[in-house]
Amino acid sequence: MAKQRGALFPYIIWIALFVIAPIALIVYYSMLDLSGNFTIANYKAFFSPVYLKMTLTSFWYAFLITLFTLMIAYPTAYLLTKTKHKQLWLMLIIIPSWINLLLKTYAFIGIFGLYGPINAAVEVFGFEPKQILFTDFSFIFVSVYIFIPFMIIPIFNSLDKLNPTLIYAARDLGASSFTTFLRVIFPLTIDGVKSGIQVTFIPALSLFMITRLIAGNQVITLGTAIEQQFLVSQNWGMGSTIAVFLILSMVVIMFLTGQKKGGRVR
Amino acid sequence: MRKLSSASKLYLIIVFLVLYAPIFYLIYYSFNSGGSMNDFESFTLEHYKAVFKDSRLIVILINTVIVALLSGLIATIFGTLGAIGIVSIKDKKIRNTLLSLNNVLIVSPDVVIGASFLILFTMIGVKLGFASVVVSHVAFSVPIVVLMVLPKLLEMNTSLIDAARDLGASKRDVLTRVILPYIKPGIFAGFFLALTYSLDDFAVTFFVTGNGFSTLSVEIYSMARTGISLTINAISGLVFLVTVFVVIGYYFFNNRSKRIHEGVQR
């Protein structure tokens, strides 16, 4: 098949132009100040308490979002594999994930609004309506809502591949259903969980539209900060510095959740 | 297979309700003659009419579709050639390096892709607008196409190519009459995914679109930032309808090709 090598040419150009060049440019710009001189001031600024605190809270939120998403998605995926028409049910889970993310986020502006259904329900129980929008609760809730289908799909796939005789064997050998889950099912589906964490944690660090629309200025994630620096403050140097750290954290997460056998997307 | 307990069923029902509630909430109020998402006054189609009357919105809709089709097409060509090229590489190290580079854009956060492309386009001097949006959509769709086509190529028996060559087929014939027909399902799946990625993208487009050009996601974002507008609800209704049709179509297409494929293998 060596004669097909000519096919590689446009692809290599794509890699050079849109994979290597952008990363190089981000690193280059992270060392420039506003007037284009070389400086490490951006990195110094990043290690100032303001940015460090922002980074830590961003990670904390991403951690919480991933945790809650996993806690909801795993049982759902597990129960889905037990249903009769499981592929059909899975498709019904996938449909909401295909609706434009902004539309789903927008829905919560109404739902969490001061006169929205949640507050109406709160009032029925005799409580005062409260502003739920623009709080960190609403940010976490909406993010978890958005990521649930993306977490369910890989976990469902790995549960579906699990050989059921292993579970019978564990039960026959006297393991309780909890032990079976802890020692057999969960370890064997850990790859699905890892993929799920990948597709949740990294976007949770970087999605800026949810924070902008739902959390107001209450929550600032790494993604929000990058958008702010690039498009509002026009400080591309500082924005690139934050982007460098976002890329680094992505690499760390990929490394931690890397699969030994070379997992494949979808 | 054991039947699901009623508690499990209840759990699944709640998850489904939560997943669909915001979407139906949006669609429900798209028929509201009042201007808000709280009090349903009376049934009306005026918001749908407003969508179709708003020529600016229609132009944006057409733009979005053109960008998706065009970028999907170009990305499919590049990606398919790239996958064929990757397979032709014998050296395992080079192949794995290319594959890792391929995956960079898939796992990269959207903000980073958007910001780095913004720097890239400004440096090269590409005017922000239609061209920059199409090029960046091509850029982030290429790796997806490669990932969809690659497995098909890898499972292809190389003696098919040898046989074609022995029987006197030219290089071009081998490509168009043997390889391409064999990997066709992968190419279609890649094109399809590229379309959905393009239609769904917000963050990258938001960075690289200039003032004059807008896609649906960017438009929804700027509308949602100014508050509730039932036109967005009407758009959600339309988007939901299209999505359901597309998902059902994809499901059947996928199932059919899977069945044909399994039939061939066994």
From TrEMBL, chain A:
Question: What is the recorded membrane topology of this protein?
Answer: Multi-pass membrane protein
Q: Where is it chiefly localized?
A: membrane
Per the similarity annotation, which family is this?
Belongs to the binding-protein-dependent transport system permease family. CysTW subfamily.
PANTHER family hit by this protein? INNER MEMBRANE ABC TRANSPORTER PERMEASE PROTEIN YDCU-RELATED (PTHR42929:SF1), INNER MEMBRANE ABC TRANSPORTER PERMEASE PROTEIN YDCU-RELATED-RELATED (PTHR42929)
Domain ABC transmembrane type-1 intervals: 55-257
- Report any one BP term from Gene Ontology: transmembrane transport
Give the transmembrane region(s). Answer: 7-29, 59-81, 88-112, 132-156, 196-215, 236-256
Q: Which GO terms describe its cellular component?
A: plasma membrane
According to UniProt, the name of this protein is: ABC-type spermidine/putrescine transport system permease subunit I
This protein's UniProt keywords: Cell membrane, Membrane, Transmembrane, Transmembrane helix, Transport
The reply on keyword Membrane is: yes
Subcellular location per the Swiss-Prot or TrEMBL entry: Cell membrane
What SUPFAM superfamilies is this protein classified in?
Answer: MetI-like
From TrEMBL, chain B:
Domain of life of the organism in this record? Bacteria
Q: Which GO terms describe its cellular component?
A: plasma membrane
Location(s) in or outside the cell: Cell membrane
Ranges that cross the membrane: 12-31, 57-89, 101-124, 130-150, 228-253
Topology relative to the lipid bilayer, per the entry, is: Multi-pass membrane protein
For this protein, the record's Gene3D superfamilies field holds: MetI-like
Q: Which Pfam families match?
A: BPD_transp_1
Major location category of this protein: membrane
Could you list this entry's UniProt keywords, alphabetically sorted: Cell membrane, Membrane, Transmembrane, Transmembrane helix, Transport
Domain (ABC transmembrane type-1) spans: 61-251
GO terms for biological process? transmembrane transport
Q: Which InterPro entries match?
A: Bact_Polyamine_Transport, MetI-like, MetI-like_sf
Give the record's family classification: Belongs to the binding-protein-dependent transport system permease family. CysTW subfamily.
Q: Which PANTHER family match?
A: PUTRESCINE TRANSPORT SYSTEM PERMEASE PROTEIN POTI
Q: Which named protein is this?
A: ABC-type spermidine/putrescine transport system permease subunit II
